[in-house]
Write a structure and sequence with these properties.
The complex is a heterotrimer of chains A (about 375), B (about 325) and C (about 500). Chain A has about 375 residues and is mainly α. Helices cover about 70% and strands about 0% of the residues of chain A. The longest helix of chain A has 30 residues. The radius of gyration of chain A is 22 Å and the shape is globular. The N terminus and C terminus of chain A are likely disordered. Chain C is α/β, with parallel strands linked by helices and about 500 residues long. Chain C has 3 domains: about 230 residues, Rossmann fold (3-Layer(aba) Sandwich), CATH 3.40.50.300; about 170 residues, Rossmann fold; about 80 residues, no CATH class. In chain C, about 30% of the residues lie in helices and about 25% in strands. Chain C contains 17 helices and 20 strands. In chain C, helix 14 runs parallel beside helix 15. The chains are: A mainly alpha (about 375), B mainly alpha (about 325), C alpha/beta (about 500). Chains A and B meet through helix 1, helix 7, helix 13 and helix 15 of A and helix 3, helix 4, helix 11, helix 13 and helix 14 of B.
Chain lengths: ~375, ~325, ~500
């Protein structure tokens, strides 16, 4: 009965998933997990002596209460979509890429070098160049740990973490010793030629005659949405996506099917790094217009929460990125209003979301699914046994 | 006379390096051995960093409020064990992804520690500087003066062994005790078995869940001590991100040490030595290359980790069931 | 003489796995001092009931009695305390531990190990002498042959004082000679008054060994009979619920030109150990060549190497006369598929399928680059669906739903998905490993007929199986593999079990 044993592992024997409506899996359970995370976050706010409901109300108002706030929220969302997709594609290949932070940092370097070099060029050229070079830098920075994992068996979680530290050191060196604006004390480059800046959405919409208040939200938001569509098509509608998913789900089956795990691990990591690198386009070409220290501010880690919350699917990732955009924008504003609250509170919420949406995803699942099964009348949907 | 002087200087340099190595190695050893218990029992722990950070914060916060480093140590252990239990709850009870759980704990604590520090102490996410009596004591040994005249032994005794933190001695004890537990004790036998083949443990009438929780709690205790060392023995207060990747380095040391006590100890000492050298190298001109930019020297331990994982480990065989939640076959 | 209560009895035991009723009012009684068989097809619930008796799985109702007294068995610990020991089908051993450490685990007798170890050593030497359970106490069990590993499992149970010993499919991994050795041990146990329960699907073993037999089908007990009063045919019919053919009808083979010619083939496993040590064989068009052998003697590595899944360490492989071993770019899983080699892997769940993928995605595994399913950039989902639906019709896969994840099909239907994929591409050479492992009897008949039909179309088939009956029923020529080498060839008509068994054990070579 070797068969039975294997079936226990794949979970086949626990009835068909068809018994439970699909939306339970991708809507209700994530919502429950989110609520649990928020409830605990509220507890933390209580501990530091504030009223969680007041804080929450202010947070939401400051994030979506007026047009300018929405622009800021979507600007944060943009970066989170990029890193969420980055973490997700690695997950689909069975890899945990914790290096989004470093890859985004390097991506910013690539975008920034284009910004520095293309003085006097039209912005679309600079935008294309920045997309290309940020993708390249991010991809290389992720592909090295990918290669080490595929060829040398080096634990990718640890190598990507180390690459975050190394990226930070390299960038500090470059900004302090090499790229620094001559005569400046602060470690950052000169500002780019305003002609190559990526247009903000308020400018773009202004060309179409729609007036919205100014915000950092820029064209990379549309690029992020395009990446979501491309991500979906690539992963579920092309043979390359098929191969990556096969490697992620069952490496031996991949070898059986003539699919090289090593090649796909490196490829998935490169794509992952490229996606993370696009954060540089948003931040450097769209907002900062120069390269500076620590502009990433934890986006790589938020990407983990976004991917887990969004179930590694682009639609879910957009929604989860929106949520974290609200938290980042609203949380920042809250810290101005409340002397006891600082921005790191948002990280607490991120950590709790990762815990509940990722590691504790089974917390509510059995009970909720059982509830739906019972409501379905307990009909025998079991599989025909061998 | 001149030659003797130079030899003394050289000895002093070596001793200072060795001393720095031990100081830096202590939290690494504590964290790596913490993970040794957990991972040999089959629970991967990427969350050492977070647990250490929580330990560091609570040790400093409580020591600062009460003036007692021992209460601080207790608080550090309690906080770290609580996080370890969260990890256990997610990974053992609910069979969640162990890497994701560990990462969640790291991010949670990276936010929580400064948040609480900010709210409680209003010093920009730090705790106040601890006065001497609120820090964990060093152990002063007798006979330093008497031995000071003896060549080599005298300086070694004075610089290296005397006035070491109580936690350094505890760590030495821990290493020896761990070796004994893993080779001679019933608990060690069961721990090793549950990491290799939990079904064998289950069918032998033992509880896989109970054993893994025990392992995870030990991990919590040791990472808590490691955190307390950082903020109340080595340092004098909590500053944000004060673990600076030590949790990950410890994990790398464990992998490099192939999940065995003595090689893991060696790997920790190697990392610590690199760090000690790194500090000494800053701003010092080297032959051929001249002065190396400080950032490159600072990233030495991280680069070394990557190189070690890429080069030497190769076929490191992790405990067979590590990272895999236990699901009964049927 | 007063009627003794049964050593072990279950009354009305029920067990559900989700919606699947795995045990339905299971009642059986095992008299003391007997060997009792529990027989049934895959999924009949025979392992489930014994796992419940051993406390490994909780029951959803029913009573377990030992020596006539009800016992509450909530964990293996309770079972051990009640004198029940179990040898699982997959051994519950810690590979890096020595035999002694494995026996000691859970019965250490103190916080430290030293005293318990000394005690265990004495006791084990005694048990080994009494029951013929010889095994080196200080070797890591991972280094022992499976027969010896099984003896360690029996020692574990006896050291804990088991009076009732349950063995789940104990002979699946043994040579016929090792099986004989095991049976001698079990009979010795019976003579000492112990009670033995053996779970198996092999009728021959039931007839040879047991005193009584319980037949299970679809979770229920369908018969309790004394072995002396029944026959193989009757038991088979009880198991399946209808008359079954125990043989495959086939005409003599008419072999044509050689399709596969292998010479001096060497293959190493992942750890660098040579597992195939110079194998030479030929498979012609229109014949089935079977490779018999105890699992772990290199057959798996041989099959995977010929399918391009493992690099060759040396030797020659010719396909339709063309040398491929020196063309590493074509001698790959992908390249060989393109050259008309089909491969049904030994382990469909871990190799042949991605169980979380939809059936239609699994139906192109290995053929994902085929232009039939691909546009310039995107895959053609329609073509995928139609292809899978057609294959499901042809192979009677149920449920006929190409969008259902592969994990939701039963073992037999999963195997049909794999077979359809590999056979419907009309391969010149089909490599088949364990085609009916974990498959119900109905599907076994279907699969065997398909393989023979493919042969009759003039295709070459290389079959690897550890089921001797299957090898003998299907093969036109039988090769025996032992320790990485082919030790002989036998015609099926001359392949009696004893002769094959000796060759499989490396004892005798064919002339």
């Amino acid at each position: 009965m070797a068969q039975d044993a294997a079936q226990g592992v794949t979970g086949r024997s626990f009835g068909r998933p068809g018994e439970v409506p699909g939306w339970v899996g991708y809507a209700l359970l994530p919502l429950l997990n989110l609520l649990a995370a928020l409830a605990l976050s509220g507890l933390v706010i209580l501990v530091i002596g504030e009223n969680p409901l007041d804080v929450l109300a202010l947070l939401v108002t400051e994030a979506v209460g007026y047009p300018e706030a929405i622009g800021y929220t979507l600007y944060y969302t943009t970066s989170y979509i990029f890193t969420g997709l980055a973490v997700a594609i690695a997950f689909h290949c069975g890899l945990f890429n914790i290096g989004g932070e470093g890859q985004a940092y390097l991506g910013g370097l690539g975008a920034g070098l284009v910004g520095l070099a293309l003085t006097g060029w039209p912005w679309p050229v600079a935008a294309l160049g920045a997309v290309a070079l940020s993708a390249l830098f991010g991809a290389v920075w992720a592909a090295i740990p990918g290669w080490l994992q595929a060829k040398r068996g080096s634990h990718i979680v640890i190598t990507t973490i180390m690459f975050n530290f190394i990226a930070a050191a390299v960038m500090t060196y470059l900004l302090v010793d090499v790229l620094i604006r001559p005569g400046s004390q602060s470690p950052e480059t000169r500002e780019f030629d305003p002609g190559v800046w990526l247009p903000t959405m308020d400018r773009v919409l202004g060309w179409a005659g729609i007036a919205v208040p100014a915000s950092p939200l820029n064209l990379s938001f549309l690029w992020a949405l395009a990446c979501c569509a491309l991500f979906y098509l690539f992963l579920w509608r092309t043979r390359w996506g098929y191969e990556i998913r096969t490697v992620g789900r069952n490496e031996r089956a991949a070898v059986y099917a003539g699919i090289s795990p090593a090649r796909n691990i490196i490829l998935a990591m490169a794509i992952s790094g490229a996606l993370a690198g696009f954060v540089g386009v948003n931040e450097i070409m769209g907002v900062q217009h120069r390269i500076l220290l620590n502009f990433t501010g934890g986006v790589g880690f938020v990407g983990i929460a976004v991917a887990l919350m969004g179930r590694n699917h682009p639609v879910g990732i957009v929604l989860a990125a929106l949520l974290f955009g609200v938290l980042a924008q609203g949380g920042g504003q809250v810290s101005f209003e409340y002397p006891t609250v600082n921005r790191e509170l948002v990280m607490v919420i991120q950590g709790l979301v990762i815990l509940f949406a990722g590691a504790l995803e089974n917390l509510f699942k059995p009970r909720v699914e059982a509830l739906f099964r019972r409501r379905g009348g307990g009909h025998d949907g079991g599989t025909a046994h061998g | 006379m001149m030659g003797e002087q130079r030899m003394d200087d050289a000895l002093l340099v070596v001793l200072l390096l060795a001393d720095a190595t031990i100081r830096v190695a202590t939290p690494l050893v504590l964290a790596a051995f913490a993970a040794l218990y957990s991972e040999r029992a089959g629970v991967v722990d990427i969350g050492l960093e977070g647990k250490m950070l929580a330990g560091a914060f609570f040790a400093a916060a409580v020591a600062s409020s009460t003036g007692s480093p021992w209460l601080g140590l207790g608080a550090a252990v309690a906080a770290s064990v609580a996080l370890a239990l969260v990890h256990g709850f997610a990974c053992i009870t609910h069979k969640g992804n162990q890497v994701v759980s560990g990462m969640a704990i790291n991010i949670l604590v990276a936010g929580l520690a400064p948040t609480l520090a900010y709210a409680w102490f209003r010093q920009g996410g730090q705790t106040p500087l601890l006065p001497g009596e609120a820090r964990l004591p060093q152990i002063h040994l007798p006979g330093v003066e008497a031995l000071s005249g003896v060549p080599v032994l005298g300086p070694v005794y004075r610089e290296l062994i005397d006035d070491a933190s109580v936690l350094i001695w505890l760590t030495v004890l821990l290493v020896v005790a761990t070796h004994w537990v893993f080779t001679r004790s019933r608990f060690g036998l069961r721990l090793r078995a549950v990491g290799e083949n939990p079904s064998a443990v289950d069918t032998a009438g033992l509880s896989v869940t109970r054993l893994r929780y025990q392992a995870v709690i030990i991990t919590g205790v040791l990472t808590g001590i490691a955190g307390a060392y950082l903020s109340t023995a080595h340092g004098a207060g909590f500053v944000r991100d004060m673990t600076a990747g030590k949790g990950y380095l410890a994990l790398a040391a464990l992998i490099f040490g192939k999940w065995r006590p003595w090689p893991t100890l060696f790997a920790c000492l190697l990392f610590a030595f690199t760090d000690a050298v790194q500090v000494r190298l800053q701003g010092v001109p080297l032959p051929v290359v001249g002065v190396i930019p400080v950032q490159f020297i600072q990233m030495l331990p991280y680069v070394l980790t990557v190189l070690l994982l890429a080069g030497f480990v190769g076929r490191a065989v992790a405990p067979k069931a590590s990272g895999v939640p236990y699901v009964k076959e049927r | 003489m007063p009627q003794l209560p049964p050593a072990l009895e279950t009354r009305g035991v029920n067990k559900w796995f989700g919606a699947n009723h795995a045990n339905r009012d299971v009642s059986l009684a095992v008299p003391k001092g007997t060997i009792h068989g529990v027989i049934g097809e895959n999924g009949a619930g025979k392992s489930t009931i014994m796992s419940i008796v051993y406390g490994y799985l909780p029951a959803d109702g029913g009573t377990i009695l030992v020596d006539g007294r009800p016992v509450a068995v909530r964990s293996p610990r309770d079972a051990l305390a009640a004198g029940i020991g179990m040898v699982h089908q997959h051994f519950m051993l810690v590979d890096p531990f020595t035999v002694l450490e494995n026996v000691l685990l859970g019965a250490e007798g103190g916080v430290t190990l030293a005293a318990g170890m000394a005690r265990a050593r004495t006791e084990l030497i005694r048990l080994a002498r009494d029951y013929g359970l010889e095994v080196d106490l200080d070797r890591p069990v991972g280094e022992l042959p499976v027969g010896a590993q099984q003896r360690v499992e029996i020692l574990k149970a006896l050291y804990r004082g088991a009076d009732i010993l349950i063995l789940d499919e104990p002979t699946g991994v043994l040579t016929p000679q090792e099986t004989d050795h095991l049976f001698r041990i079990l009979r010795a146990l019976r003579e000492q008054g112990k009670t033995v329960v053996i779970i198996t699907h092999k009728l021959r073993e039931i007839m040879e060994l047991t005193d009584n037999v319980t037949v299970m089908r679809r979770g229920q007990v369908v018969a309790n009979v004394a072995t002396a009063h029944t026959s193989r045919e009757e038991l088979a019919e009880l198991m399946v619920g209808r008359k079954v053919l125990l043989r495959v009808e086939k005409a003599p083979a008419r072999p044509g030109a050689p399709v596969l010619e292998v010479a001096g083939l060497r293959v190493r496993d992942g750890a660098g150990v040579e597992r195939v040590k110079g194998v030479g064989l030929t498979v012609r068009a229109g014949e089935i060549v079977g490779i018999a052998g105890v699992s772990g003697n290199g057959q798996s590595e041989l099959l995977e190497a010929l399918a391009g899944m493992r690099p060759l360490a040396g030797g020659s492989v010719r396909l339709r006369g063309e040398e491929l071993a020196n063309q590493p770019d074509r001698f790959t899983a992908r390249g060989l598929r393109a050259l008309g080699v089909g491969h049904v892997p030994e382990d469909r769940q871990r190799v042949g399928l991605v169980t979380s993928f939809e059936a239609q995605e699994c139906a192109i595994l290995g053929h994902q680059g085929d232009p039939a399913f691909n546009g310039r950039l995107l895959m053609d989902r329609r073509a995928l669906f139609d292809r899978c639906a057609a294959e499901m019709d042809a192979y009677d896969v149920r449920p006929r739903d190409p969008r259902l994840p592969a994990a939701n099909f039963s073992g037999g239907n999963q195997q049909k998905i794999v077979l359809a994929r590999e056979m419907e591409r009309n391969p010149d050479l089909l490599l088949v490993g364990q085609p009916t492992r974990g498959v119900d009897i109905g599907a076994i008949e279907f699969i065997h007929r398909r393989l023979v039909a493919l042969r009759d179309q003039g295709k070459a088939i290389l079959l690897v199986s550890v089921e001797l009956d299957e090898i003998r029923a299907l093969s036109d020529r039988i090769l025996v593999m032992f320790d990485g080498r082919l030790v002989g060839e036998v015609a099926p008509a001359e392949a009696d079990e004893r002769r094959l068994g000796l060759m499989m054990a490396g004892v005798a070579e064919a002339a």
